[in-house]
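Narrative summary of target 7.
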Amino acid sequence: MDRFRVAILIPAFNEEKTIFKIVSIAKKFGQVLVVDDGSKDKTADVAKKSGAIVKKHKTNLGYDLALNTGFKKSNELNIDYIITIDADGQHNPKLLKKFINKLVKGAMIVIGVRHKKDRIAEYIFSLYTNLTYGLKDPLCGLKAYNYKSLKQTGGFNSYESIGTEPMLKIVSSGKAFEQIYFKVRKRNGKTRFGSSIMTNFRILRSLFIWMFKKKSYDMSKNH
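Modeled conformation, tokenized:
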């Protein structure tokens, strides 16, 4: 697999301590694209020095808009696959090879399944998707997409889905998906998603919006 046919998208917020190592490993598997979401530290500079293409937001716009900026930038690249991975060091970038192999074999999307989750709302969201689709960990940030399938979903920012909307559209459409179990590593620094109460609220909000939107989405598929 030509690594330049793979885009590796890393949304980052104040991750100067971890971004160099992640990019240095990830670039062995594809063209790395870092979206610096309004960092106050040297995340963008370090990412550039480590070999990534960098897009920078002047202010912090949030996870979904960071993903969408990277998705739009990837339109300029001649790629077949796009993979999202977190910048905080919890995801081992060496796992990228396994995800790429699943895509090459025909999966439209490959979703990481963490050995543990941080919040009660994540377990609730996962319970819903497991019962509905057999999807174990919808909020894992390590996901790999067939680029054409991702493009058909329209991207990441129809609503604040915490990166779940395109995945749910692909899976609910009956397209082939795979899941890869892995052990998360200790996070370097604080979570970018803020306090536990607010994050749980955002996760549940995302779930309820999908449940509402799913009805109209299912109807549009059938016409």
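The longest helix spans residues 196-221.
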